[in-house]
Amino acid sequence: MSLQPFLFYTVAALTGLSAIMVVVTQNIVRAAAWLLFSLAGTAGIYFLLGSDFIGATQLIVYVGGTLVLVVFGVMLTAQGPFVNLKTGAGEWAMSLIVGVALYTTLAVSTLVTAWPTSTEESRLRDERSSTNVALLGQALMGVKEATPQGMVPGVNNVVRVQMSYLLPFEIVSVHLLVVLIGAAYLARAKRRAHRLPGVTN
Amino acid sequence: MEPAGLNAFLLLGALMFVCGAVCMATKRNAIGVLMGVELVLNGANINFVAFSYFNPVFRIEGQVFALFVIVMAAAEAAIALAIVLNFYNNHSSVDVDTAEELKG
């Protein structure tokens, strides 16, 4: 028995169960805690898939940044009735039906489709073991030769455009800056316009 | 025990996607809706990284797109939280059912 399936099924069970608990729990603070486990488990999945840099980014940006942001949002708004907003039984039944139907559709179409995967596992594993992060960095810096020319059955390999991701990288950087300025503008403190009756602060 | 193949990862991604969609539909707290969005984006990201691992043609593409999705998710969370806090300041509520001023 090798280590990979054991690790995968452990981490996948943690991730999936935490994701389900985010939906099931009614307390918003507990939902944030379950989301933490789910996001950390996703980072573990990325590590298992050999994407070290994506896993590290997931841990830093998601678990360290986005989730702290969400928890701050919860703390700023968690007053009295908003911590436990109940969902009606009819809504639960309806979303359970829709969720099961959606998952069945996705699972069946996943299992039926013959995905084009690689046939030479060992060669590829040697190839991608050490150079993954370097290739990713080169692609983001605009080196066109970094993109590998893989030959895979089922994929059209005749026309293969060499891509570099320097321009998308720059656009994403500027986008992040604009978004942060916009968020600071939107969230700045203002006077309260009016209060809804019946809500005590 | 055989090593987990591509389908196992895709099924996990589908599970997270469905959890996020149901979370968006059922939560009445606006921040709970935001958590559903995060789950959906993570489910899509698992698919990207799984394809980049099991298909060498997409080895760089899958990881680059996953990185972009993570950055987009961070930006989206910042803006959405700013909107939620603004809504809370104006209405003293985070219940999405009370945001009905645009209802016709």
Notes on the protein architecture:
- The complex is a heterodimer of chains A (201) and B (104).
- Chain A is mainly alpha-helical and 201 residues long.
- Chain A has seven helices and no strands.
- In chain A, α1 (3-24) packs antiparallel against α2 (28-48) and α2 (28-48) runs antiparallel to α3 (52-77).
- Chain B has helices spanning 6-26, 30-54, 59-91.
- In chain B, α1 packs antiparallel against α2 (30-54) and α2 (30-54) packs antiparallel against α3.
- Chain B is elongated, with a radius of gyration of 17 Å.
- Classes of the chains: A mainly alpha (201), B mainly alpha (104).
The first-level CATH class name of the largest domain in chain A: Mainly Alpha
Mind describing the biggest β-sheet of chain B?
none
Residues in helices of chain B, as a percent range? over 70%
User: What structural class do helix, strand and pairing data of chain A support?
Assistant: mainly alpha
Contiguous uncertain segments of 5+ residues of chain A: none
Number of E strands of chain A: 0
How far apart are the first and last residues' alpha carbons of chain A, in Å? 58 Å
> What is the string of helix and strand elements of chain B?
HHH
Second-tier CATH architecture of the largest domain in chain A: Up-down Bundle
Radius of gyration of chain B: 17 Å
Roughly what percent helix of chain A?
55-70%
N-to-C CA distance of chain B: 58 Å
- The averaged pLDDT of chain B comes out at 88
Shape of chain A: globular
The proportion of strand residues of chain B reads under 5%
H/I helix tally of chain A? 7
- Report the total helices of chain B: 3
Identify the most extensive interface between protein chains. A-B, 99 and 78 residues
* Percent of residues in beta strands of chain A: under 5%
Short description:
The complex is a heterodimer of chains A (201) and B (104). Chain A is 66% helix and 0% strand. With 201 residues, chain A is mainly alpha-helical.
